[in-house]
Amino acid sequence: MPSLGRWCSLVLLAGVSLQLLFALSIASMNLRQPLSTAFQRSAIWENLAQARAIEWRHTPVPGKHISDNARKAVIASEDSLFFSHRGADWAAIERAWQRNAQNDRILGGSTITQQLAKNLFLSGERNMLRKGQELVLAWMLEASLSKQRILDLYLNQVEWGDGLYGIEAAARHYFNTSADRLSATQAARLAVMLPQPRRLGQNPNSAYMNQRTATITRRMGAIEIP
């Protein structure tokens, strides 16, 4: 029977192998677009388990077919320091920790890079181990890919409604246009949906959506895309 030390060595080896697999997968994203993400596959299984018939819409597009309005909108809404941090905004994490400490919740304050890491590889489970893995994956993404590539991957994979993924599908669904033709206001409205796309997408012209869209549109003026 293997000793405790042997078991620990095997667990360590498995952990290192998993990180290497993640690193290789991320490096390959310089040349390829993921066909699906862990988050999307989880949503598929959830729909199958509940016997729900959901139309699946996901059409990844090259970065040249994504409007800068879309890039500016998600940065203004989700991660204003995107071009200056290295994967994690520690000040935002600290603020989230302070807000959540009394509610026995797990850290929030995720950057765009962290959100991409979570969507690509991780489950929706919220615990410290998963949060730690998310930070490691965010560092790998920043070390292997350009900021522009990370942003374009995020825009092509993020959820914008029930069964609706990626900026192209969202632009077609909500505005009957393409991702490269989104106006500033349209892009801002899509960005506002991101925290709760299934709920907010059901009424994209609500008073709340209109107010937040105006706010994000104003913030976009201060965002510069290198």
SSE diagram, text form:
Elements: H1 4-28, H2 38-49, E1 57-58, H3 68-78, H4 90-100, H5 112-121, H6 128-144, H7 147-157, E2 159-161, E3 164-165, H8 167-175, H9 184-193, H10 197-200, H11 207-220
Parallel strand pairs: 1-3
Antiparallel strand pairs: 2-3
Helix pairs in contact: 1-6, 3-9, 3-11, 5-6, 5-7, 9-11
Can you describe what's shown?
- The protein is mainly alpha-helical and 226 residues long.
- It has a single domain, classed as Biosynthetic peptidoglycan transglycosylase-like (Penicillin binding protein transpeptidase fold, Orthogonal Bundle).
- The protein has eleven helices and three strands; from the N terminus they run ααβαααααββαααα.
- A three-stranded mixed β-sheet has the order 1-3-2.
- A hairpin with a 2-residue loop joins β2 (159-161) and β3 (164-165).
- 34% of the residues are buried.
- Belongs to the glycosyltransferase 51 family.
- This is Biosynthetic peptidoglycan transglycosylase.
Briefly say what this structure is:
It is built from 11 helices and 3 strands. The chain is mainly alpha-helical and 226 residues long. It starts with a helix and ends in a 6-residue tail after the last helix.
Question: Key features?
Answer:
three-stranded mixed sheet; 226 residues; 11 helices; Penicillin binding protein transpeptidase fold; 59% helix
Largest sheet: 3 strands, mixed
- Calculate Rg over CA atoms: 19 Å
Mean pLDDT: 89
- The number of helical segments is 11
| Percent in strands | under 5%
What's the CATH class label? Mainly Alpha
Order of helices and strands: HHEHHHHHEEHHHH
Note the gap between the termini: 58 Å
How are the strands of the biggest sheet laid out side by side? 1-3-2
Q: Structural class from helices and strands?
A: mainly alpha
Spans of at least 5 consecutive residues with low confidence: none
Q: What general form does the structure show?
A: globular
Beta strands, count: 3
CATH architecture title? Orthogonal Bundle
The CATH superfamily title: Biosynthetic peptidoglycan transglycosylase-like
According to CATH, the fold-level topology is: Penicillin binding protein transpeptidase fold
Instruction: Provide the number of structural domains.
Output: 1
